Structures
1.
Amino acid sequence: MKELMGLINIEHEHDFLEELTYFRCGAATPFAGRYRLIDFTLSNMVNSGVDEVAVFTNHKYRSIMDHLSTGADWELARRHGGIFILPPDWNDPSDISKGDLRHFHNNRDYFHRSTAEHVVISGSQFLANMKYERAFERHLETDADVTCITVPVENVLPEHSPQLRINEDENGWVTGFSNDPENKNVFSNVYIIKKDLLLKLVDQCIAYHKDHFFMDGIKDNLPDLAIQSFHYRGYTMFINSVESFYRNNMSLLEPDHFKSLFFKNHYIRTKTSNEPPVKYKEDSSVSSSMLANGCVVEGEVQDSVLFRGVNVAKNATIKNSVIMQRCKVEEGAYLENVILDKDVHVSSGQKLIGSKEKPFIAAKRQRI
Amino acid sequence: MKELMGLINIEHEHDFLEELTYFRCGAATPFAGRYRLIDFTLSNMVNSGVDEVAVFTNHKYRSIMDHLSTGADWELARRHGGIFILPPDWNDPSDISKGDLRHFHNNRDYFHRSTAEHVVISGSQFLANMKYERAFERHLETDADVTCITVPVENVLPEHSPQLRINEDENGWVTGFSNDPENKNVFSNVYIIKKDLLLKLVDQCIAYHKDHFFMDGIKDNLPDLAIQSFHYRGYTMFINSVESFYRNNMSLLEPDHFKSLFFKNHYIRTKTSNEPPVKYKEDSSVSSSMLANGCVVEGEVQDSVLFRGVNVAKNATIKNSVIMQRCKVEEGAYLENVILDKDVHVSSGQKLIGSKEKPFIAAKRQRI
Amino acid sequence: MKKEIVGMLLAGGEGKRLGLLTKHLAKPAVHFGGKYRIIDFTLSNCSNSKIHTVGVLTQYSPLELNRHIGIGKPWDMDRQRDGLATLSPYTAQDGGSWYKGTADAISQNIHYIDQYDPEYILVISGDHIYQMDYRKMLEQHKETGSEATISVMEVPWDEASRFGILNTRENLEIYEFDEKPANPKNNLASMGIYIFTWASLRNYLIEDMKKEDSSHDFGKDIIPAMLNDDHRMFAYRFDGYWKDVGTVKSYWEANMDLLEEDLSLSLNNREWRTYSHDSHYPPHYVDQDGKVNNSLVTSGSWISGSVNHSVLFERVDIGKGSVVEDSILHPSVSVGSDCTIKRAIIMEETVIPDETVINGEQYDEPVVINQQNIADFNGVKGGR
Amino acid sequence: MKKEIVGMLLAGGEGKRLGLLTKHLAKPAVHFGGKYRIIDFTLSNCSNSKIHTVGVLTQYSPLELNRHIGIGKPWDMDRQRDGLATLSPYTAQDGGSWYKGTADAISQNIHYIDQYDPEYILVISGDHIYQMDYRKMLEQHKETGSEATISVMEVPWDEASRFGILNTRENLEIYEFDEKPANPKNNLASMGIYIFTWASLRNYLIEDMKKEDSSHDFGKDIIPAMLNDDHRMFAYRFDGYWKDVGTVKSYWEANMDLLEEDLSLSLNNREWRTYSHDSHYPPHYVDQDGKVNNSLVTSGSWISGSVNHSVLFERVDIGKGSVVEDSILHPSVSVGSDCTIKRAIIMEETVIPDETVINGEQYDEPVVINQQNIADFNGVKGGR
């Protein structure tokens, strides 16, 4: 099998999560109890046998560096290959590249030093538990220049609207890209491309002062390229707004969704920690909720996501909420439709209620 | 013993090495066959039992990140403590700090989470193989607020001129800082400070819009602080110009200097590699030179420093030169007073001659 | 490379009284406390006490134990010149021999210890559950100028005859060691934690190796020999939680102890963490029918039934209508629907069919269940 | 966790014929080639062949060997669910036993292999020097549909009677194994590198364990038994450099071979790196009186004398006026001034006084010197 190398490119992703992304980039947003958004894509690559992955980061990259660290938790702490976290640090005065092309241009080494002939490229906002093997096989069989992974959705949701839609012929060849809201064939922003072609398109984009590799280099070159569309039909999410973030956390609490995402395929890897098991006390009452290790629960938790190390005191109630790492909810507090960022401390007797459409959000380290 | 934490602050160091620092910061400059400048300070800290070290980097920090990586080669890849490479990545719109105070302000966490009560702070341009234990003992004994390590030099060299000079009384208390060229008591830019005081001075500097922690926070507060001067009398170097870089490389080739720096104390740690032993062939002729692993030598090498993986072909001659990693010097080439950066390829028969005062420099990856 | 103190962790015992639990597994590697193995507690003690040079002596079924400890990464012991070393029996030019007793295991590895030229040596067992700062014990050892310091805890007088009792003077200097005395003179029981001055112990070990009638055991041979020679030896008092998990019953009790509110040992203590490996399982899920009280539950589990006063390891499934009480469920145990499980220890990967009833309350010890013996214990539903 | 192929690396042999070199050291851990240990070559072969699940079977004096291999970091084998495992002799409920032969060592670790449910198993020794892509051998194994594939190299016909010779048909199918045949029918010698189809080997191992008269050896028992049952077995031809460093002479020769210009094995090959640990010693230094030709010299060394056709490990000092020729100097050897050393192997940390003369040319084998025996070999200067 010809080998595949990976690239996670978050240069063009904006920080959509209001208070939650003041100090971290979108890709580093905590999700589903113990993960960050980027874990899903990175795990998919690793689980597909990709053992070199570069991450093109934008600003606020410290959050990504801290999380991914050496890559050891993804089995990517290798002497050769492994993970390459590439923040923007460029010092070539003669460099004329723009947008994400600056990354491609300044990190050419990454592509040259590998023997892989194809690259799988992804953002961080499309979440699924999938392997790329089948798409890659198809890519090779059809000898496509590029293979785009698409999701045929049943209902178009708000988070689909910024995604490109793909038109294709009966053999899966892409005939057009658009943002047509009627088209339910949603592009996942994951694609496989021949490495030689990638390098050629990078040169071309730079020469013509372009600033977006996919839009300018691939989409606008469609007439000259053979692009396949590969349909993925498993459980998927697009997270690109507070609303989609909250709704998808809640939606994951449906047993079927939870099982599809976490138990259907390989496990999603994330940064490991030292948290002990969850301690349930005498009077705890928990239902339809997921709890990460390190929590201590004495109160009531319903339809909620608790990250690592959350403390829920006696008679406290948490409903339809997302409570991030090490939050403390004291006696008698009542939370409904709430998102608490890390280390928030809710005092005894407090009542916080948001709406399903617009949850109440508390930023990191607040005391309420 | 009260514990000591470390900080390497290279924010105010400029990239003095012309072509050699176009793409790397000064602290990452290769030196003495297999090291980078920063290795000396970092090793001194580790060899003194310091097991948490932060590095405040400036621009071009990728070179530092690549070199230090997880810190494993310095035994600093720890689950708790270890190394913290902190590039400038700040996103707090309310932050009013300036200069290196931005680092101190945005990385307060680093100081708070440690139980150490004192911090040893250093730049990267002062090179020695020393332990800080004795200076620290003295710091505690005298209950100094700050202890500055100074070097009483015999001959003032050009590289000493940017360094502060220290006046002290008979008990070692600092009475003044200056740049007086007559004063031979040169400040090494290494000092130990009480952590509480450090945090207090940081607040004060920020409140008054200062931009240089040592100059504004310590030097200008001398009347209010009890500052000790601790004399270090071992072999030392200051590297802050091409001239001092080259001269000190050459000076290290004196057996006494080499032994003082490398065999008198602990070993200087650096990034490990996989290079095989140096292969000397039939006709090689080498004298008064240091050679790092991975070299293959068939020609003549005199009074020179060869980094890892350098190839010296038959009848090639290298004199008084510094040849960095993986350079190839082909048959019959003649090099004298030359600095070659990494991966330079000198073709057969070429003649490159610089002067002792101004060596010939070739930037990375050139073919000559 | 000189070290002040080197730890020697005895992890080779068979743990016969743990029955099925140690049939194919070294006792220190037995699962404990919802995500740990027994040895994690002593290794974490070393790490938290900043003793990073530790030899782990293994002999019995060490495969999983070795895989678990590796080169000690979770305990920050993966170091270049010191760190953790696994010391298993080996052959040399004069042949090889198995470790014949606790002291013999150390004796056969004198060359390992000598590499570090230590002043002191800490000898501990990998099968006790406790959180202890060995540095404090070392400080006392140095202050008293002892040749040996033995950690002790007070036991109720009426139980003292079940322990190795140290008879001490008022200043805690030991003058006599009583193994399971019929009429105890004291109630300070040895916890099997020793600090020795290495130069002194080294001689006793070499002497002991020569004695054919010796059982090569610290408690039975080395300590009495040292006392006999009137060496200065002190007891070190420990007041915290300590438990030898040597039997199925004590193993079960120690797990259940973790559910107590005011235990001095806490897995949630951030100043004294218990380190182990972490998995990549998702957070556990309690569905709308699930009910959990007074229990530990770990990543990857799925609770549709009722769990009370139990310890559940990773990836445990509890089916709808099932009731789990006073039980310990090892990793990847799957309990079907409408089961009742009481006072049982269910071993790794056991699949329990729907409507199974396992009631350990009728036995003296909690029952240990695996896939092979499950039928023997399956009672009739409602027959409790 | 399923793996296509698992490597089993035999590293427990005593290496008696290496004499002093293996007195306190497992043979695979003996220093080799200026900065390596013998086992680095096979471990690097595994790593370069992308076989990352490897069990290393140790038994004899494993302390340094264990420290060297750790959890396999230099070879990229420090992985969470597979990677490198050290498999030393252990006890189980039915007691314990030492590894009695190459096949027995594997048999006692069937449970280790079974964890990975492999299709194939690679059996190699930790005491051969060669660079080989096991994937190519595996490809042939699959293409031919063999039960066993044995790597072979051509040896000169007149030496064939010193080897285990495989008699093959034209397509390389093996029909007979001749251990040191008086009248060899073939000149293809077994290199002790086997790929087996695991399901098949597993049965033979279990059968072999039951045979009391078996020596439990691959060459003597398993292969003949398989041939006897008419299994499909093929030879795999290898043309590169291969050397068994089983004697002091062959050990010395293999080191000297590294100085050859056109050896097919190269430490400088960036496509097939030989991995090991690296040290923190500074670059080596050749002073104004130093002279080095045709040699390997490593970090931390200091050369003031003359070195010719020799292999110097880390931190070796050669004093002024000394001459070193045809010799191997292990780490931290210090040679005083005005010494002459010829055809000698000087062991770790030996300090050689000024004016010592060691001339190994007068002996059949190169001399092996350590601090204890140096006086026995010290000749009179000029007396050569």
Note: Residues 204 and 217 of chain A are 8 Å apart (CA to CA).
2.
Amino acid sequence: MTRIGVVVFPGSNCDRDTLRGVELAGGEAVELWHEAGSLDGGAGVILPGGFAYGDYLRAGVIARFSPVMRAVAAFAAEGGLVLGICNGFQVLAEAGLVPGALLRNRGLRFLGRDVRIAPERLDTPFTRLIGARRPLRMPIAHGEGCYFADDATLDALERDGQVLFRYVRSDGGSTAETGDPANPNGSLRAIAGVMNDRGNVAGLMPHPERAGEAILGSDDGLPILRSFVEAAAQAERPDGRADLAAAAVR
Amino acid sequence: MTVGELEPQAAPTAATAVPLHRALGLTDDELDAIRDRLGRDPNELELAMFGVMWSEHCSYKSSKPLLKTLPTRGEGVVAGPGETAGVISIGDGLAVAFKIESHNHPSAVEPNQGAAPGVGGILRDIFTMGARPVAVLDARRFGDPAEPRTRHLVDGVVRGVGGYGNCVGVPTVGGELVFDSSYGGNPLVNVMAIGLLEQRFLTRAAAPGPGNLAVLFGSATGRAGIGGASVLASATFADDDPSKRPSVQVGDPFAEKLLIEASLELIERGLVEGLQDLGAAGITCATSETADRAGTGIEIDLEAVPRREPDMEPFEVMVSESQERMLAIVRPERYADVAAVCERWGLPCAVIGRVTADGDVTVREGGRELARIPAAALTSDAIVHHRLAAPPERRRLAPAPGAPVVASDQLPERGMDPGAVLLALLGSPNLASRRAVYEQYDSTVQASTVAGPGRGAAVIRVRGTSKALVAATDANAPVGAVDPWLGAALSVAEATRNVAITGARPLGVTNCLNFGDPTRPEAFWLLSEAVRGLGDACRALGLPVTGGNVSLYNESPLGAILPTPEIGVVGLLDDVATLVGPAFRAEGDAILLVGEAAPGLAGSEYARVAGLAPEDGPPALDLERERALQAFVREAARRRLLASAQDVSGGGFAVALAEAAIWGGRGVHVRLAVVSSPAVDLFGESPSRLVISARPHDVPHLSALAAEHEIPIEVIGTVGGDRLLVDLAGAGATGAAEERGSRVADSIDVPVADLRHAWEQGLPRALGWSQEA
Amino acid sequence: MTDFRFAVNVLPKPGILDPQGRAVEGSLGHLGVSGVAGVRVGRRVELTVSADAETAARATVDHLAGELLSNPLIESFTVERIG
Amino acid sequence: MTDFRFAVNVLPKPGILDPQGRAVEGSLGHLGVSGVAGVRVGRRVELTVSADAETAARATVDHLAGELLSNPLIESFTVERIG
Ligand SMILES: Nc1ncnc2c1ncn2[C@@H]1O[C@H](COP(=O)(O)OP(=O)(O)O)[C@@H](O)[C@H]1O
Ligand SMILES: [Mg+2]
């Protein structure tokens, strides 16, 4: 089975959910302590949600300096698959591993609710198994999820296909612009998830691991985790990683 | 116990004029009782320790005799009152721990920072037992939502509770939000927490084994929350800088999260003999309670206590309520492992003393002994007061429960159209959707929330099993103001009914008694009647009371609060696949009314909206009927005869029906036989009633089952369309009502979309929150 | 009317727990920084006041700082003229 | 070694939306305050650095301010010596 590392920072609180989500998606989940110097043979790494270091100062910024993040950055630089969910996205953004920053929600309140998102493309390691499901329903739970980047960066992200998910209305048809209630935090261009330019590191604010079983109201998150596990399995094979990176970008 | 909930004490400003014990909140009689127990005069430090431990909050000195009357035994109870939290076995080697507590007074002073540590405190009560917290329910009551001060408090409390709970990663899955002007000067912030544990890890807050180490871990100790005892500081320092002695504590949810993980790791690795959280009265409370429970003593050395601030006085260290700390009792040979666990989680940890055999709490500083008090004198043998109870004047004016009063069966002026009344009720602050508030909480973390806030009881699945926990909180304060026995009994009936209608079996009850000054005989009467009602209801329903909390002195210059017995119930659903929800599910399903309306509108939301005086008489409660109703609905769920089940409570039948329609996104057409009067039948809140729906072919089975339980049941209509249509029929309808001057002629006919709109907009509008996002 | 620009610095009072400051101190090791202590994390609010005179402007800022920008139970503030 | 105390003021860059600043402006009316504009809400971090000389201490602070205390994408900072 494919090993997927789930990082545990002090203050991570979705680590257990994510470990379980990886297992539901068919992977072998291993905990990676924030002081770890290596990724313990993981074929992919997930930074889970929560409040690493209390999110004090700025969400994700203190966690970014954890020892394990050096290993994560090195792994990403080699083309390894990295996914940040919610707080994990914030950590990746602070670390500069994905573009942009996550500002306080437009309404200045923490928001926990189900949102609808739609993938921009289905040929990435994070979305390949989503198929025709649209829109995807899953919870958000964050106070700082307003995606921000300057206009030039946003244009480049769109041009280069780095926008992974956008918030959409419940009919799924239309993108939720800033100011639309379906865009819960005021994210610019309704961006809910992005990738780096190489296509192997992604972050998203909604929680796929909380939408992995019908009993919880939605299993729309499962295909995201399954995509990740499957892509990681492929990356494990000789030259798999290079293929993957080539396939993912453009 | 709840941190920072010490009742208001005499202002320490005139410390020099007032004898020290009085400035510390102790009466002359209490000082004598202390002398008795010590056989000598206490010194200042000892007096400070008695002052906090003999406070109402820590000692239960007024309520203890009442609490003793509550039923505590029940199936599977593993820990009951007297332990940090109630624990009940749920099979598979698992157990559920749960408790409710208040954080009222600090929240009134500083809503955000005051409310937040309340969450931390109750969570510690749960994980101290070895349970991982899996859910929080927050029950809160505020004054008039139109008042700026209320809005400030609501906003602060919601941010405080949310900020803390969201960070520690425990989902907030339910609770209450009630507005009543009586809470204007004294809001109620009650928080219930639920945890799951493997029963073999059940841990006691006891200090067994003389020679074992007393280990303090978590945050360092500062001057936070010294409260009333700060009088000692002003007595000691000539020019005291008050800014240095804040009594408001700042919670650190990040530290709490680390504390949860470290504590559970210590327990699961078998490294501790006992574990207790530090709350009110800090080290004094933790050491004396753990020693007393084990029949041992504890000797501590203040110099060993890690501090956050320099120059702390011994009493400050002893009574500080610094948050996010735990006391572990550890065998000497295991200390190195304990320290390693704390280090890994980044938590300071220190041996501050050891368990002794002498039964005393002994405080040393280096070689000097500063205090020595029998542990029991501070806890189990603390003073008890038998307070005077006298019913208030007004009580005698109120008619007996259920007495029909002419005034109450009238709809208000706008009630020419009951549809308009229904819309007004759905949009009223107490009945409208709570979404604007609960969306500020994380209700889905831990990925086990089957039903979160918003629609009746919360449902949390138990991972690794097919089971689910079902929980609800309720308090009927308005009826309690008229008849406290009935108010408490109705609260139990409603909370348990909310759990039962999902198909779950209620396991036990926890409660938070929010009342006024117990030295006022009328206030004490309210409390004692409420406890009697709580006990009677729990006995009738066969449920143990496994714990709770008492918050007295909830009074402000504006007056006392309504007596508020907050009830928390946890139930067990054996197979989560059989869960019954409240929403109508399918076109063509039959709608049935179970139970029957009884007169008495006092305390209802209808009465509030219509401006009726509470002296009208509240609805009666038949506990035997309630028990039968709950047995019926559980059995119906078990046999999968129910498509939906919703209980009739706030706003009465019409609101229950409308909610099931709104949540199901479906219309209904029903015909209601009015027995009493349209107001009573549509909007009255008499208990033991349900609105259920079922597939047509299940109806005969349901009827037969209801007959077996001797419960009235009646098919009243069907699910379908997009409007809510209620035709009124029967002797009490139009004609007869008109004759009595009630003037109701119309049926209800409102689009479900309009009902939804009223329900969704009500709360943000009442609070003046902009409709952002 | 003249425009005066001020900064209001809001910090946790001495003795009040400052979890943010503590978290920052705790992370310094990871950054390879030593010799840093006494970290307190607060807020800085900059604002422009239009008034006839600086005293009037400052009175407005003091009022705002005490009522809105800080929580007097746990925080103290200072006001600086910055333009 | 001498102790130097500094303050780092972190503010949203011009052009970056500052919902907190807007919220403060929005509530001025309720407080009966007028003539206030250009509100920006940021952070202030005070800290003590032990070093041989102020230049060394300041270098440490600059490093911390740029790496940890501010996010250069959205924020700018200034450093003040305060003791
Ligand atoms: N209203 C009540 N009903 C039943 N038990 C109660 C009530 N109030 C307090 N208790 C019990 O009394 C004991 C002492 O309460 P408290 O000091 O708040 O506990 P702890 O220090 O363990 O948090 C606990 O076991 C608590 O459950
Ligand atoms: Mg306790």
Note: Residues 6-15, 234-246, 404-409 of chain B have pLDDT under 50 and may be disordered.
